[in-house]
Amino acid sequence: MTATQRYELIRPIIHKEKTIQQVHEENDISIRTLRRYLKRFREGDEQISCLADRSHAAFSHPKWFTCEQKALVVAYKLENPPISAQQISKDLAEKGILEINPHSVADLLKARGLTKEFFLPHRRNLIRIPQLSFQRAVAWNPTPYKPLYKRLQREKFSLL
């Protein structure tokens, strides 16, 4: 609802043409909302602009981080890839650079795609591949597998 629409709702009340109850019944707007509009209008020097939409979001929050602070955390992670979110939080706090919760660091890194999985290989994440040993090639002998071999021949499957 725009400021002009709100003013049109409360105008009859201001000019004593209708009561709040009548406007409430005609427009299906709660009495509390109408009183709130009247209060905002009277406290705003009776300017229509004071009836404009207001953001419900806070202008600042103690746990919000600026873009510079987020960039600092990301840069620290890029400089030290194997380090965990908890260690980043601890290091930045010890150096007096930034107080940030480890969960906030983890969420920020996850949103940027900078989790530990991104920085493979890490010693703990390496896959151990056994050494290949070369043995003398032996021709395949179907003797221990005769029942299977005969069935495959009956069904015309090729082993190769």
SSE blueprint:
Layout: H1 3-14, H2 20-27, H3 31-43, H4 67-79, H5 85-94, H6 102-112, H7 146-154
List keywords for this structure.
mainly alpha, 0% strand, 7 helices
Q: How is this structure best described in words?
A:
- The chain has 160 residues and is an all-alpha fold.
- Helix 1 packs across helix 3, helix 4 packs across helix 6 and helix 5 packs across helix 6 (102-112).
- It has helices spanning 3-14, 20-27, 31-43, 67-79, 85-94, 102-112, 146-154.
- It is elongated and about 95 Å long.
- Among the domains are: 3-51; 67-124.
- It starts with a helix and ends in a 6-residue tail after the last helix.
- The chain has seven helices and no strands.
- The low-confidence runs, each spanning 5 or more residues with pLDDT under 50, are 118-122, 125-138
Fraction of helical residues = 40-55%
Q: Sketch the major β-sheet.
A: none
Total beta strand runs = 0
**Nearest-integer average pLDDT:** 77
User: Helix tally?
Assistant: 7
Please provide the ordered H/E string of secondary-structure elements.
HHHHHHH
Counting helices, strands and paired strands, the structural category is: mainly alpha
- Please state the CA-atom Rg, rounded to the nearest Å: 36 Å
* Overall outline: elongated
Could you tell me how far the N terminus lies from the C terminus, measured between alpha carbons in angstroms? 76 Å
How much β-strand is present in the residues? Answer: under 5%
Oligomeric state, counting identical vs distinct chains: single chain
